[in-house]
């Protein structure tokens, strides 16, 4: 982690939390799934994301490295010139906005680039999202908060058939348990009935505390969002004052491309660690249970998954068939 934007802040925080970093290094020395080459700056990033709580930092680090070493869907072949990653860039696009909110939160925007649902591969889209997040954290490890802003324009009923619930579960686990920054809000804009159905599908996979981060906005209903995210921070095609989303996306893709070498090095390192991890007979499922993921919640998720997968496979997506999905309403 050598390209840190605010180097002085990093140096100050390294000094302030020197003892915590030493304690975490001692803990890491006994962990088979965490690289011993992890830097002080990277450890501080995990500490910062957990508000400097040591126990929570250990849980986040363990889940982070377990998933990155075992979830191939998201963390292998992260190269724009290979496989579906070359194609997915034409389907979904992401970028971080140049400026931050008054509270110092960074904003990531994601949106569909084509309404053709047959082109969407959810695992590749999530992989691309995580590549953008990793690239951002290389430069901004101590960001005070991050806001996801997902534009749902163009999402139709046919996109529901592209949702793989196993992929959704892995995504939610990573975002809730492993991501090394402070996720403050998830703004979902241009919401229609299809999005409501999709949200009802994934609610059983979400932690109740995480649900409070989600704010949904119908087309044109952004007044409340502007109170937290000033309009001028947005791209001009969102009535803001920044460059267009397309321009910002091209810049973001260039930054990610510059990070490809790091992705490849990490993949090789974690692949070797994963071999050692498997020898210890610790599976990813077992690791998650050790990290206090509630078993009853898992049982309920499995039951819901079976129902939802049956409906997805049969493509019965009218309002009657979704009436049973009104979880938590």
From TrEMBL:
Q: Where is the CRAL-TRIO domain?
A: 109-246
What are this entry's molecular-function GO terms? phosphatidylinositol bisphosphate binding
Domain of life according to the entry: Eukaryota
Cellular component GO terms, alphabetical: membrane
Q: Which Pfam families match?
A: CRAL_TRIO
Task: Return the PANTHER family for the record.
Answer: ALPHA-TOCOPHEROL TRANSFER PROTEIN-RELATED, RETINOL-BINDING PROTEIN PINTA
This chain belongs to the protein called Alpha-tocopherol transfer protein-like
